[in-house]
UniProtKB/TrEMBL annotation:
Name of encoding gene: xerC6
Membrane in keyword set: no
Pfam families reported for this sequence: Phage_integrase (PF00589)
Domain Core-binding (CB): 1-84
Superkingdom, taxonomy of origin: Bacteria
GO molecular function, one term: DNA binding
Residue ranges annotated for the Tyr recombinase domain, each copy included: 98-276
Protein name per UniProt: Tyrosine recombinase XerC
Keywords (A to Z) from UniProt: DNA recombination, DNA-binding
Length: 281
């Protein structure tokens, strides 16, 4: 098959593949770019790995980032499998590792102030519970009133069906306990058992919770999400010296490798490292 025939055959097969529309569009574009680059006479059937190695170098020479190079190689690999050329063995680029995006200390202060000033005690409770417990947004949305046990001096929140259907129980930070208690006092009437409800009395959706957290951040100039709060929780635990096994349990991780990411340096750490170098004179 010539280049045009390869592209046509791939596009027909791609249309039937069990992939999202966005993935199909991305793969189609990247495969078209690869076939345009492909030297005349190059044989993917016999020289597949050598050709892809050269294409990887071509992308790197064009100053493409490692993640971009890898996304193109993924698309080319799918082309090879789809057209029966086999799975390529050419290596991908190493991606620099960094900790997940978490709020820096000054940003944490801004967020906490924003949460404290929230118009609704519900929104304040969502912000502080997310910050001090690291719950996933779906876990926050799934909480029922009975999942939060409060007393004058302590409190707990129970996640019954976390990721992987994992159960965990977390102690509540005093500020989170106070905020949840205030919300329970203000909570408007509803027949729903949900902890967080909307004005109509229905369970607040994950999307609505995300919007509340984003707004709390936006009001003080922060670009963030519920994921940012979760990552901040994990990063704070690791950096205060909490045992990694305990952090994994509190985060609901099934693998320690997921938790160890929080001990990796952040972009801010790298900036501070350079800024701390001595200046001559």
């Amino acid at each position: 098959m010539n280049k045009e025939e390869k592209l046509t055959a791939y596009q027909l097969a791609l249309g039937k593949a069990p992939l999202s529309a966005n993935t199909k569009r991305a793969y189609a574009s990247r495969v078209a770019a690869f076939l345009e680059w492909l030297p005349e006479g190059a044989d993917l059937a016999s020289d597949r790995d050598f050709v892809i190695r050269d294409y990887r170098q071509h992308l790197k020479d064009g100053h493409r980032s490692p993640s971009t190079v890898n996304s193109h190689l993924d698309a080319v690999g799918h082309l090879c499998l789809t057209l029966g050329f086999g799975a390529p063995s050419a290596r991908h680029e190493h991606l620099p590792q960094a900790s997940p995006r978490a709020l820096e200390p000054k940003e944490q202060t801004l967020f906490l102030r924003s949460a404290e000033k929230a118009d609704l005690s519900r929104d304040r409770a969502i912000g502080l519970l997310g910050f001090y417990s690291g719950l996933r947004v779906a876990e926050l949305a799934a909480l029922n009133i009975e999942d939060v046990v409060l007393s004058a001096r302590k409190g707990t929140v129970t996640v019954w069906h976390g990721k992987g259907d994992r159960h965990r129980e977390l102690p509540l930070h005093p500020e989170a306990r106070k905020a949840v208690n205030e919300w329970l006092g203000d909570r408007w009437f509803s027949e729903s058992d949900a902890l967080f409800i909307n004005r109509r009395g229905g369970r607040l959706s994950s999307r609505s919770i995300c919007e509340i957290v984003v707004q709390l951040g936006t009001s003080v100039g922060l670009e963030m999400s519920t994921h940012t709060l979760r990552h901040t929780f994990g990063t704070n635990l690791v950096r205060q010296g909490t045992d990694i096994v305990i952090v994994a349990e509190m985060m609901g991780h099934s693998r320690l490798e997921s938790t160890r990411r929080y001990s990796l340096p952040s972009a801010g750490d790298r900036v501070k490292a350079i800024a701390g170098l001595p200046v001559e004179g």
